[in-house]
Amino acid sequence: MSEEILLGDEAVARGAIDAGISAAYAYPGTPSTEIYQTIQDYAKEHSLPVRGMWSTNEKVALEEGVGVSYAGGRAMVSMKHVGLNVAADPFMNVAVSGAHGGLVIAVADDPSMHSSQNEQDSRYFADFAMVPCLEPGDQQQCYDFTREAYELSERLQVPVLLRLVTRLAHSRAAVTLGAARAQNVPNYVEDSSRFTLLPVNARKAYAKLVDKQPALQEFSENHAANALTLRGNGKPGILVSGLGWNYLSEAMGDALEGYNLLRIGVYPLPVKKIRQLLDASSEVWIVEEGYPFIERYVSALGLMRERPIHGKLTGALPRMGELTQDTIRRCFGLPVRVSLQIEGLSEVLVGRPPRLCDKCPHTDAYIAINEVLKQYSPGVRVMGDIGCYTLGYLQPYEAIHSCLCMGSSIGMAIGAAHTGMTPSLCVIGDGTFTHSGMAPLLDAARDNSNIKVFILDNSIVAMTGGQPTMATDEEVVDLVAGLGVPREHIRIVVPLPNRKEQTLAIINEELPYKGLSVIIARRACVTYAKQIKLYKRACEEQSA
Ligand SMILES: Cc1ncc(C[n+]2csc(CCOP(=O)(O)OP(=O)(O)O)c2C)c(N)n1
Ligand code: SF4
């Protein structure tokens, strides 16, 4: 046993390593990035035989994890919440096939949208797929639940979803670590019909998943993390889940002693315990981080009966954003605590809106695009995508006019062009292009859509902290050509102030062309220059 101060993400990573994983796959995204980063660094530092990689996207990462499980190993797959949308197809189907070696999917949700387009709650995905979800409430549980998730996954042959939220993923606490388990010896799944989901097999596999539900329910009902404390009939009650417990205990302190309490960390929901809490309580507060998942369940099960319920649906707690001690105290009718006041602090800590770094290559790309588009204004729209370059939406550039989800810019430009928008332009980074931009570019090539695609190739996945990109420089050109874009309409510009005239000339040549052009703005990110060099050297060594 040893103790270390770990981030929630790091505790998950160490839990996975100590559970004996053979491999880990991830796609970066705040707040989940540190899970794979830690696994990679720790395995390297301790020469552990743990394979893995930053995958092309979340779907591929999960499929790689399923392959490990199929071959008998244990796998960790990690991503941010919106990544699970990308991985939804294998996720829903591996629930049906079931796991063989332990398969854990760690998903970090982002209530308050610190770094995301939405605050979707991954507990719904676990429920949808009928697989268990473990929701740690502190860093120790991050470690313990991860280890336990592998045991559960192998015992009941199900994938397990581990749900984190931003504050937990990105805050530190002491964690007691246990002895590491050995990795599994590879042993292929015997009954391959399980993983061959032809309708004839899928019906049987799905029946098995349905049959497992009582065992999952029993696991949840008996789990110590679903802790029911009854202090007396007729007392008020609280149902609290995951990190909500942290906020609640800090906000309420000793006042909690006056309440019946059910703390939830394991799903499917422990319905019997919920019923016991409701039966014993005069009124019930439901405190959960994310959507009103438990609250809806309680009402759907008809468990509200005569008791008043206070939660997000009733307006007692805010429907969106993270919980805070203040919102909880207000909800319980307690005075909000006065926060620490430091004289002159607001003058020192001035608001810093996000902006592109000085000398960022994206700035020169946007300056050029804006200048060329002046001849078409007003009203030219440029479809944007997700990466550092999304900041081009803001002043002073105001160069892009959409950002829906990774890879969406090209498809949106095609649709807008079909509806008569001319010129129809879009902007996508090299990382986002390989994540989910190649399929829509294939559409554009087959259709010879009248769109102009700018690929901003800065040689790295910058926004999430500098992970290696799957393709840069000539590799991007070859990919684009391979997808069917004619070489004469694949143009390269170097977004530098002293190359501006050439850049403007090339864009101006392509804009009047009534078909598909791809303009690659090729210049490395200045902030991650060192990493880019290292990655490029590693690639050269690998291919030598
Ligand atoms: C489905 C999904 N996965 C992950 C993320 C997190 N994320 C935001 S931008 C980005 C990559 C951006 O890389 P790139 O396109 O190369 O642009 P750069 O930041 O380098 O300019 C990632 C992984 C996300 N928003 N959505
Ligand atoms: S990290 Fe790189 S790509 Fe991102 S804003 Fe800074 S210089 Fe630009």
Please sum up the structure shown:
The chain has helices spanning 8-18, 33-45, 58-70, 81-86, 88-97, 123-129, 139-156, 166-169, 199-222, 244-252, 271-280, 293-300, 325-331, 345-348, 361-373, 408-418, 430-447, 474-482, 500-510, 529-543; strands spanning 2-7, 23-26, 51-54, 75-80, 103-109, 133-134, 160-165, 172-177, 227-229, 235-241, 260-264, 266-267, 281-287, 309-310, 382-383, 424-429, 451-457, 490-493, 517-522. The protein is of the alpha/beta class and 544 residues long.
Question: Could you describe the 3D structure shown?
Answer:
The chain has helices at 8-18, 33-45, 58-70, 81-86, 88-97, 123-129, 139-156, 166-169, 199-222, 244-252, 271-280, 293-300, 325-331, 345-348, 361-373, 408-418, 430-447, 474-482, 500-510, 529-543; strands spanning 2-7, 23-26, 51-54, 75-80, 103-109, 133-134, 160-165, 172-177, 227-229, 235-241, 260-264, 266-267, 281-287, 309-310, 382-383, 424-429, 451-457, 490-493, 517-522. With 544 residues, the protein is of the alpha/beta class. The chain folds into 3 domains: 2-184 and 197-222, Thiamin diphosphate (ThDP)-binding fold, Pyr/PP domains (Rossmann fold, 3-Layer(aba) Sandwich), CATH 3.40.50.970; 227-331, Rossmann fold, CATH 3.40.50.920; 361-543, 3-Layer(aba) Sandwich (Rossmann fold). Helix 10 links the parallel strand 10 and strand 11. It is globular, with a radius of gyration of 26 Å. The structure holds thiamine diphosphate (TPP) and iron/sulfur cluster. Residues 356-357, 360, 362, 388, 458, 462, 525-528 line the site of iron/sulfur cluster.
